[in-house]
């Protein structure tokens, strides 16, 4: 079902093992509040790499870009995680935006004639989730994840620009866990699977270590993985995005 099933299995085991270890350690009860209203805001940077398959002019093309490759063509990126909790219930908004620009060259064939120029990409991934904690450590959540790629091919010379790309929405169902692993450190993990939506399959997981500073601030250091397989159109208009996104996450959080 997924493009990298063995890697997916290993990641799932790591998420469960790390969170279980933190939660089950004797004497390390979580410091999270079980009642009251809180709002947390977390600007962050996802140092992602991509590995998979896309489609160019109806032909499959490999996607293999590490963070250094992406940084070379990145104009700017913005990402922000916000969570509002009322005791057991929590609500999450997590938008991410990136603007990239790169050179390209397509030989003939597959193109009718050699092509060259620039590719401009605007990428949006946005989550809106609602969830419920059964206790201080374990919860479930569901919601929507929106993915939008606006791709514009700007050929060299006088040829007109070519708009490409697509957008889709999935509806994940997932679980999260949290726990203390010391006086100043805690651990958070979550994973979900798309149970409905536009993609053929989608899986998401992350593990984050939190280094606390006082009662309402913490540094966030973790790893995020998102594997999605989406296809639309056919022939020269085929759009395909069967890609695993993964990499470190670095952020800082304030709770009010």
Order of helices and strands: HEEEHEEEEEEEEE
The percent range for strand residues is over 45%
Q: Summarize the amount of helix as a percent range.
A: 10-25%
Number of strands: 12
Shape: elongated
Kindly report the spatial arrangement of strands forming the biggest sheet.
Answer: 1-4-5-6-7-8-9-10-11-12
Task: Determine the structural class based on helices, strands and strand pairing.
Answer: mainly beta
Based on CA atoms alone, the radius of gyration comes out at 20 Å
CATH topology: Lipocalin
What is the overall number of helices? 2
Q: Determine the mean pLDDT.
A: 84
Largest sheet: number of strands, sense, barrel closure: 10 strands, antiparallel, barrel
């Amino acid at each position: 079902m997924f493009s990298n099933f063995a890697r997916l299995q290993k990641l799932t085991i790591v998420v469960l093992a790390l969170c279980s270890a933190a939660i089950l350690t004797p004497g390390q009860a979580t410091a999270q509040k079980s009642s009251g209203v809180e709002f947390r805001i977390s600007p962050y940077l996802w140092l992602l790499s991509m590995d998979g398959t896309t489609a160019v002019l109806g032909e499959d093309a490999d996607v293999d870009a590490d963070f250094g490759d992406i940084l070379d063509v990145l104009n700017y990126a913005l990402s922000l995680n916000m969570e509002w909790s009322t005791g057991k219930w929590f609500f999450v908004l997590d938008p991410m935006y990136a603007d990239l620009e790169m050179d390209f060259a397509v030989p003939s064939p597959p193109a009718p004639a050699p092509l060259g120029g620039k590719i401009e990409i605007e990428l949006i991934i946005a989550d809106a989730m609602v969830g419920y904690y059964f206790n201080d450590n374990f919860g479930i959540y569901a919601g929507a994840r929106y993915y939008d790629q606006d791709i514009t091919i700007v050929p060299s010379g006088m040829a007109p620009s070519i708009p490409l790309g697509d957008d889709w929405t999935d509806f994940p169902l997932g679980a999260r866990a949290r726990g203390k692993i010391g006086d100043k450190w805690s651990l958070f993990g979550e994973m979900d699977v798309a149970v409905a939506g536009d993609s053929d399959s989608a899986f998401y997981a992350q593990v984050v270590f939190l280094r606390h500073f006082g009662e309402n601030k913490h540094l966030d250091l973790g790893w995020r993985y998102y594997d999605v397989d989406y296809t639309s159109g056919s022939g020269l208009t085929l759009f395909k995005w069967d890609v695993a996104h993964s990499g470190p996450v670095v952020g800082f959080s304030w709770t009010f």
